Amino acid sequence: MPHPEILLQRLDHIGDSLGHKEGALVLLGVGSVGEELDRLDEYSDLDFFVIVKPGFKQRFIEQLDWLEEVHPLDYYFKNTDDGYKILFQDGIYGEFAIFEKNELENIPYKGGRVVWKSLEADNFAIKSSNSERIPSIRKDQLDYSLNEALTNLYVGLGRYARGEKLSAVRFIEGYAIDSILSVLHLVEKEEDYFPDCFGNERRLEKRFPKFGERLGDMMQGYNRVPESAIHILNYLESVYPVNRRLSEEIRKLAE
User: Fold this and answer.
1) What pLDDT shows up at residue 99?
2) Residue 126 phi/psi, 5° resolution?
């Protein structure tokens, strides 16, 4: 895996390359190569935006010479209308998007860091975050999310009993867990370690260590879904007044 310094050097070199291309205005690092450099490690990748003049977006999407001139690409996949997922020949992985200057104000992002800026963009104010465009993934009340988790357990166990194991895994180890994560900050003290506004599961083991210790029992996999469901139910009962009848039905199905 690439050393963090190599990742930052690669990003700087991409900025240098953009400096020689007409239409490029700003290179904005996001994620662990944005403002949150303290969490950058050998498992990080390059996440970045390139801001260009109006009319130049397709040029930078359709021609990746500005990347190839930095280091050859072994893989690239256009995963959105705005950009790609890429793998450089030396193993550095990245994801990027191209936006015209007037588009940036509508793009949800957080913790952006200006890596390179053209002289033409000196008067272009770049916000480090556009948080108001990011829908909240946290809930502020327990009732909805934890009852949703309970009903996920019930429905999922019924599907498991019917032989629909994959669907059961998703309901119990996916949807139910996701519902719990959306309100976990109301149940357990959260450690201050880079919460992610796009995914409650990111860095969960460091942010919620007590829950993290129990998570393995709640996610035992395809052939042990009933066991996972019971551990999830036990957890829910420890933090919330679970309806007794529904709890009994869930345990019957699990058995």
Assistant:
1) 97
2) -105, 120
